[in-house]
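Suppose you are handed a protein chain with no further information: no name, no annotation, nothing but its sequence. What can you learn? This example shows the usual starting point.
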Amino acid sequence: MQLVNIMAYTKRLDGRKSFTELRPIEAKAGIIKSAHGSAMFRIGKTIAYAAVYGPRELHPKFMQDPKTGILRCHYNMMPFSGSGERIKPGPSRRSKEISLVTKNALLPVLDLTDYPNAVVDVFIEFPQTDAGSRCAGICAASIALADAGIPMKDLVAAVSVGRVDDKIALDLDYQEEAYEDGPVADIPVAMLPSTGEITLLQMDGEISKEMLMKAIQEVRKAVGQIYEVQKKALKEKYASNAPIADVESDIVDTGVATAGTAGNTSGASGAPQAPDLEALDRELDEN
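A reasonable first move is to predict its three-dimensional structure. Written in structure tokens, the prediction is:
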């Protein structure tokens, strides 16, 4: 007699109608006035805030690179943010690892050669999480870097995909990651939407090659949705109908570095210029 698993995972625990449906997404740019660039990215109950400072002179000087600027990413979950146990304040092995993979996911789209001996710092904070935090942080950081005027060839969109029992599920939440009635695999993926280049792929759990390839295909479809939300956040800040002079005043007010403002560095070749609004709109549409 064939045994039937009566606990098989047949529908999503949070009420989503399909295994390829993303949680609700929201993004905003320019939310932190003291930063050169900033963004909020929310997916489901996971909320990421990213703030960019720089380019500015890197200290100590022995860390400087005379040929290019350096990117540093800092990932931090607030003690009360987790869906499980309270998070211990301060840097942890996990936060250091995610900071590194976030940096590596973003570097392929950046051109920091105009900022030798300088550093660009990206701080990513999470007041609330429900799984998918590293992907949300990458999405927020990508918007914030564009908001800061750092030269980029594309945005980076990221989302998790995985295996829950015998199903491929997109954008796992905390309940799915903690599923105990069958095998689970969590796979964060970051990608350049315009080319499909993968800049991050990690896996926690076990999955077959066939299921992995299917999972990556689902990610390729999903990043397009995330990309549209990222572009919309930037367009809403910069592509307004306000007079150019008013828009440029707003750019300075929200902390995006312009020539002669706080973003200038000694030893760097200068801060990013205020974005060309028409060129930004054209580039986002083309991508």
